[in-house]
Amino acid sequence: MLSPSLPRRLFTVAAFTAIALAPAATAAQGAASDWSFAVSGDSRNCGDFVMPAIATKVKAEKDDFYWHLGDFRWMSQPDEDLVAMAGGTEPSKADYQQKAWDDFLAHQMASFGSFPVFLGRGNHEDVKPMTREGYVEKFSGFLDRPEIAAQRKADGEEAAPVGPWYHWTHNGVDFITLDNSSRDEFTDDQLHWLRGVLDRDLAPNSGIRSIVAGMHEALPHSTGSEHAMDDWELGERTGDLVYTWFYDAQAAGKHVYLIASHSHYYSPNVFETSYWKERSKTVVPGWIMGAAGARRYQLPKGADKAAKTHIYGYMRGTVQAEGSIDFSLHELTENDLIRSKWPNAPLNAIHECYVDNAEE
Q1: Contact (CB, 8 A) for 251 and 1
Q2: Rounded to an integer, what distance in angstroms lies between the CA atom of residue 5 and that of residue 251?
Q3: In this structure, are strands 166-170 and 255-260 parallel, antiparallel, or unpaired?
Q4: Exposed, middle or buried by CB within 10 Å (0-12, 13-18, 19+), for 241?
Q5: Residue 145, Cα to own-chain centre: how many angstroms?
Q6: Which residues contact 75 (CB under 8 A, 6 or more apart)?
Q7: Is the distance from CB of 193 to CB of 158 less than 8 angstroms?
Q8: Contact, 208 vs 169, CB < 8 A?
Q9: Which entry of 240, 255, 269, 322 is 20 to 30 Å from 227 by CA?
Q10: Strand 66-68 to strand 35-40: parallel, antiparallel, or no bridges (unpaired)?
Q11: How far separated are the first and last CA of the chain, in Å rounded?
Q12: Are residues 205 and 28 in contact, defined by beta-carbon separation less than 8 angstroms?
């Protein structure tokens, strides 16, 4: 457990978890040879140029899947790439919002073909008139992938509705997609579900050696706290609780890793902050990886020395046989974007996205 100095208010939120959870059998999974997966988020603005290059790379590297952590399209106004590929004609806001998610499917997801892709929900998927219900309906094919449906059945939750939070296990690793894209999260429903997932992972003979949680906004008190769950009271309170749960899973012997996007840069060691170091002996490894096309942000003052911005790319996680995972940053060049471009993607627009697309 974390140090007693952790604010007591965190644990008042956990009272509901005393509800008995029906045990669910999890098939033991044997050790596998080294294998890998790819992850990033935030493909708005220039993702129609960047995501095809990511797809080309992860397929060539024979990663097992790609995990997108949200913010597919800008939604509040037309994305630069979409306008460029329409010949420079900017649609009305209403027309744009009608076609934005279809554009994401046609010019980003289609690049992957049959390659496995898992989706998380970002705050720009919550920009009006978009809704959680509309998100689930539009992307149900991704949210109900065979791996996810099989996991719900294994958890005894086969009748549960398809939704924006889910998990699946692969070669002894539990991949957990959380939804913190709106300020009503984490709800009691999502927390109750997550507590059940972690309890099953921690059960004897679960076969789970590692836990990787992916979400759009970083949990509180990270080096990216200026743009994370710290932004609203419920987010900070429930996000702190969720961090303690992952910390406890790590203390129980699991390899645990936390990955978010939302901020448009790459930053490792994001929980190496005074807040968490004062409350525990070893912080949970964490990253922010939001460089899949969105307008690049400046790095926060407390970012790790290895952090980078004004890049496009993704992280590759290489899973070792004993369950530890090594993460590496894979940056894309302008030529990578050009080699993978759609026929109607103008070279000048790709160049503009590569050299600019950054906040002042």
Answers
A1: yes
A2: 17
A3: unpaired
A4: buried
A5: 17
A6: 44, 97, 100, 124, 125, 127, 130
A7: no
A8: yes
A9: 255
A10: parallel
A11: 42
A12: yes
**Residue 326 has which token pair?**
């090594």
Q: Does the pLDDT of residue 6 top 50, yes or no?
A: no
The candidate with the shortest Cα–Cα distance to 66, out of 111, 107, 125, is 111
* pTM (predicted TM-score): 0.91
Contact 77, 96 (CB under 8 A): yes
CA angle 103, 106, 110 (to 5 degrees): 145
pLDDT digits over 350-360, tens only? 999 999 999 86
pLDDT in the model for residue 345: 97
97's CB contacts (< 8 A; 6+ apart) are 75, 129, 130
**Residues 307, 311, 313: CA angle, nearest 5 degrees:** 95
In tens, the pLDDT along 179-217 reads 999 999 999 999 999 999 999 999 999 999 999 999 999
Which tokens hold the place of 139? 């992307």
17-46 pLDDT tens trace: 332 233 333 333 444 479 999 999 999 999
State whether the Cα torsion 343-347-349-351 is positive or negative.
positive
Rounded CA separation 185/337 (Å) = 35
Whole-number Å distance between alpha carbons of 204 and 254:
12
What per-residue string of b and e applies to 184-197 under the rule 16 or more CB within 10 Å gives b? ebbeeebbebbbbb
What whole-number distance in Å separates Cα of residue 67 and Cα of residue 157? 23
**Residue 105 CA: distances (Å) to CA of 14, 109, 233, 246:** 38, 5, 34, 33
